[in-house]
User: What shape does this take?
Amino acid sequence: MADVALPAPGAAAEAPARADFEIVPLRGLPIVAAVLVALIAAIAANKLWALEFFHVAAGAVWTSLDLFIGLVLGPILGRLTIPSRIELTTRLMPKILLIMPTVVTVTLASGWQLGRYLGTINSDYRLHGWLVASYIVVGVMAVIALGLLEPANVAVLFELKKRRPDPAVIQRLLKRFIYASGIIGAMQVATLVIMTKVATG
Amino acid sequence: MTARKLPPVTEVAIASMALIVIGGIWIASHLPHHVPLGPAVVLLAASALLVLFNVVALRRVPDFNWASFFAVAKWAGLAYAITAGMLLYVFVKDGTSGGQLVVLTLSLVVYAIHVPLLIGFTVARYDPLPSS
Assistant: This one.
C-alpha cells in the first residue's frame, strides 16, 4: 500500500463538529433486500446465466471497490485535514456499510453455486489447486474485513455521531480502516489472477 | 482518547474467525468426496471456545457500556444472521447433509455471533459510561 500520513497536518487537536448523517442509509435497505431476493431466485433456478451474472457483477464491484479504496482513496484519506476526512467519511462509509456486505454475500453465494453448476468446486477438477488458493485468499480477506475493517468503519461512524467526537479515536479508527483496506486491496490482485486463470482454463 | 485496560477481544475474535475459515476451506477443498471431519470439528470447537473466552472476558470488564454494545450488536447480529442464512441456503440447496452440514451450520453460527460481538465491542470501548 502507498504510504499513509497520519495525523493530518496541524489538525490533531481540533475537536470536530458533530456531523449529521445516517449510520445505515435506510433508503438503501430496499435495494439490498431486492438484490438478495434476486440472488435467492437465481440460486433456486440454478440457471448458468443468472449465476454467472451475479458472480461476475458483484465480484467486479467488490474487487474494484477494494482496489479503489485500498490503493487510491485510502492514502488520500490519510493525508486530508480532519474536517475534510470527516466530511468524506460521513458521506462514504455509510454507503460502504451497505454495499460491501451485500456484494460479498452475493459474490460468494452465487460463486459457490456457479462452481457446483460447472463442476469447478469438485476436488477432481483440473485446476483444483487454484480454487483452493482462491478460498485461502477470500478467507484471509474475510478475516481482515470482518475483524478489523468493518468494526472500525462502524465505530468511527458512531464516534462522529457523538455530541463531542474524540479526534484521537477517529484518527485511530481511520488509520485501522486505511491499513486494512490497503491489505485487502493488494490481496484483490491475487483474486484477479486466480479468477482469470480459472475462467480461461 | 479513553485509555482503559481491556481484554484482547479483537485479537481473539480474529483468531476465532481464522479457525472457522480454515475449517471451511478444509471441507470445501474435499467436496464432493468424503470429507474427514475431525480437523474441521477440532477447529470449530477451538473457535467456539474463543467466543466463550471473549464473552467471559467482556463480562469482567468494569464499567463496560453494555447499552452501547447491545444497541450495535443486535442490529449487526440481524445483518450477519441474514448473510449466514444465505450461505446456509446455498449449502442446503447443493445437497450438503449429515456431518458436513452440521459443522458448516455451527461454523456459520459462530461467525454470526462473533462478528456482531466484535463490532459491538469496538463501538462500546470508545463510548465510556457517563459516570466513568
User: Anything to note?
Assistant: Confidence is low (pLDDT under 50) at residues 1-5, 7-13 of chain A. Residues 26-200 of chain A form one domain. Chain A has one domain: 26-200.
